[in-house]
Design a protein that fits this description.
Helix content: 55-70%
Order of helices and strands: EHEHHH
Strand content: 5-15%
Largest sheet: 2 strands, antiparallel
Number of strands: 2
Length: 134
């Protein structure tokens, strides 16, 4: 779902708020382009949830590694196991940071689109008032 819906046919005069020949249903209703920030905000919430869920994973991985080291002291594979653990810790932290950053960016998109919608609507309203809504 894109978060944008077009309702009926729309003309430039319809965006200005003045009545005109472009009214749908015999002049009773207005055709409108409607933006929904719902998909953006749901995606931001999902990214925030992932950020939160990944928070304790690094500590849990460290604890599990300590248990493995205790039970396998003296094995040569411990050096490789440590390198693998460090690699996973870096990846988990990178994913966590990306999710945290993404949540804010997705919310910003919703805000900017709402501002843009209002700016475009008001610019058409100014044109419609000068032309009498035609």
């Amino acid at each position: 779902m894109s978060g944008v819906a077009v309702m009926g046919r729309q003309g430039l005069s319809d965006l200005g708020g003045a009545g005109g020949a472009g009214d749908g249903a015999g002049g009773g209703g207005r055709d409108q382009l409607k933006h929904s920030d719902g998909p953006w905000l749901r995606a931001a919430g999902g990214a925030e949830s992932l950020h939160t869920l990944l928070g304790p994973v690094k500590t849990e991985l460290e604890s599990a590694h300590e248990l493995v080291v205790t039970g396998t002291a003296g094995l040569e594979a411990l050096a490789e196991l440590g390198a693998v653990r460090e690699s996973w810790q870096r990846r988990i932290e990178a994913a966590r940071c990306e999710c945290g950053s993404l949540a804010g960016k997705l919310r910003a998109v919703a805000r900017v689109q709402n501002l843009t919608d209002e700016t475009v609507k008001s610019s058409f309203a100014a044109v419609a008032s000068r032309t009498g809504g035609q």
